[in-house]
Amino acid sequence: MDKFIITGGSPLRGELPISGSKNAVLPVMAATLLTKGTTVIHNVPDLVDMRTMAHLLRILGAKVQFEDHRLTIDTTTYDFNEVPYELVKTMRASIYVLGPLLAKMGEAKVSLPGGCSFGPRPIDYHLRGLETLGATVELKHGNIHATCSRLKGTEIYLDFPSVGATCNLMMSAVLAEGTTVLYNCAKEPHIINLGEVLQQMGAKIQGVGTDTIKIEGVAELHPCECSIYADYIELGTFLIAGAITKGDLTLTHCDPMQAEAVINKLRRSGYNMELTPSTVRITCPRLPKAVNVTTMPYPGFPTDMQAQFMALMSVTPGTSMIAETVFQSRFNHAMELNRLGANIHVDEGMAVVYGVDKLSGAPVMASDLRASAALVLAGLVAEGETHISRVYHIDRGYESIETKLNAVGASIQRVADSNRY
Ligand code: EPZ
Predict the structure, then answer these.
(1) pLDDT at 421
(2) Do domains 2-18+230-416 and 22-227 have the same CATH topology?
(3) Which of 11, 207, 218, 233 is the most buried (most CB within 10 A)?
(4) pLDDT single digits (tens) 234-243
(5) Fold of 2-18+230-416
(6) Contact (Cβ atoms closer than 8 angstroms) between residue 184 and residue 158
(7) Ligand 1 mean position, distance from CA 385 (Å)
(8) pLDDT at position 417, please?
(9) Which residues line ligand 1 (CB under 6 A)?
(10) What is the CA radius of gyration of the chain?
(11) Which of the following is catalytic: 116, 226, 254, 284?
């Protein structure tokens, strides 16, 4: 396993390109199972999770090539519809193939995903939605076994605007007989990206990006050539890298409007944000001040940016209240930040962050993707060296993060973690 050795203290200055979105490319890759033929996907980020999904599609019989940020997926000969636990336990998003396999093949067997480091991650909305579409869903020996010769369009109301359930049910309904209306849907940019790709495949979908999506089932979908949106969570993460180091950073190849909630919070905290349609520049002309954050489904402040923002507030003068309303116990990073000298108290889905003058480098451990990003951001300003173990978490969702940050002045070394304990 690798670890990062980060020497803090240098302001980040220069330009950084934003890669394609992890949370968009994974459902789009799964959607190719709805078609027979070759789909080409551009602006694909080179991430561990993307490679895991490619491996999963190969196990199902598809031919997958990845080169120069372009995926070529040939599903002509795929004929397998079972996903083993070994794969699902490494990536929960494997569940995204459940809907497409059921819709295309009439049967799917996918291992039940477990929890993750920030709590139980149930998939009851996914399964209930499939049953509402007429599927028989059995849970046996840790597997989901779903069958239905042809799904039937209907009305489905999500108790919560779940990203995963919206993706899975959209991909199920596009081949159903009749019309499906999904109410209380997620509206994240990656949902819109998936909806657009399904439309390019011939699906009849209206309302993607609103809380009501109407789908008219069709008999067949065809392959297409499409592109992945820029990753607004990577954008937000690097904006905070510029903020926390009081640097002058310009992010390019992105869509600033998708990160509006984060940009507004940074402005409120005192940072200068200059936007063009595809770039954002952040500078720090004045002493920043602590601001409060409550995470919400899009377009609210993203839960995937909560850990990174906490790292920034831990060294910002004042007191910040951070409420996590999407995943109650998504605060593993707080205790690791406290090891670096932060002063954070967590209780019942709320963190109180008392800003400190400085952090000091120490060995810390990454526990999940965004918690590791928060530790990298803290390491950029902590005095001395910060050693972050288990950086495989960060490689799942950030493309060569150390190469990108070192190119604008960071000092991050990736070394083999040879601890003896
Ligand atoms: C997606 O997870 C993302 N993952 C997560 O990003 C992100 O944090 C999350 O959406 C929220 O935006 C991918 O896109 C691959 P949800 P997902 O279904 O779909 C509850 C990252 O860092 N719920 O929107 O699993 C659930 O427990 C990752 O990139 C049910 O109760 O999230 C949670 O409290 C981490 N039953 C809430 O809904 C269900 O059937 C939102 O979950 C489904 C969800």
Answers:
(1) 57
(2) yes
(3) 233
(4) 999 999 999 9
(5) UDP-n-acetylglucosamine1-carboxyvinyl-transferase; Chain (3.65.10)
(6) yes
(7) 34
(8) 84
(9) 22-23, 26, 93, 121-126, 160, 162-165, 186, 303-304, 326-327, 369-370, 397
(10) 21
(11) 116
